[in-house]
Amino acid sequence: MHEALAALAHDYNTSVLGLRLGTDLTVIVFGQELVKQVFSSEEYDGRPDSFFTRLRGMGQRKGITFTDGRFWQEQRSFAVRHLRQVGFGKELMEGKIMDELHELLHLFGESSAVGRDVSMGVTFAPSVLNVLWVLTTGDKFSSRDDPNLHRLQQLFTARAKAFDLTGGSLNQFPWMRFLAPERIGYNVILRLNADLKDMFMMSIKQHQKSYDSDTTNDLIDAFLHEMEARKGDKTSTFTGKYASHLEII
């Protein structure tokens, strides 16, 4: 696609293209300075508010990836600050990554010894998920055979095959969910949302039962602390309604 767009820009002798892709009005820029401006200026911080983004957000516009304005600023700042406090980008996280790396090397050694091929996606995904899961929930999947880990992998793989982050055909033709919900990927998102929400709500409820205002072991603890501190603030984005959307961050 980028070659076709570059050809259009050449034909019209412009570094800024405006066109409609499906139902979306789109602006494409070329050149280092323009790209830098788009990625660094507040004017371009807006995110799409579409059928797909709300479906991905369990019917709401929450999280960080597809939000903007005050909500995005507050939630992003909070997530980055507290993820760093529990180890993100620090030696603690490096230690967790090294643990997963040692396990990977062990698996590679076992596979090599018997001449067995290694599926990179299936092999690497559990390691990445484990590190992120620890930072978010404070827990680690018991093993690579953990059924919850397997289910999570299956759902993400199915979603990646069904569409990309733009929502694909489902976002362009949302009415197709009534005709071919499985084929267009609608049912995939519903299953992913339901399973993710169940998994995270189970962890959130466990955190609520053992809540200690003096302890912050992970992102969920930090969110619960912020909820408690902002309890009387009606404008707060830290409420129980948003707690189940931690997974969308």
TrEMBL record:
Q: Tell me its cofactors.
A: heme
Name the family the entry cites.
Answer: Belongs to the cytochrome P450 family.
* GO CC annotations on file: cytoplasm
Pfam family example for this protein? p450
At the top level, the lineage of the source is Eukaryota
Q: Which of UniProt's keywords are assigned here?
A: Heme, Iron, Metal-binding, Monooxygenase, Oxidoreductase
Q: What is this protein called?
A: Putative cytochrome P450 305a1
A single GO molecular function term of this UniProt record: steroid hydroxylase activity
Tell me, which GO biological process terms does this entry list? Answer: organic acid metabolic process; xenobiotic metabolic process
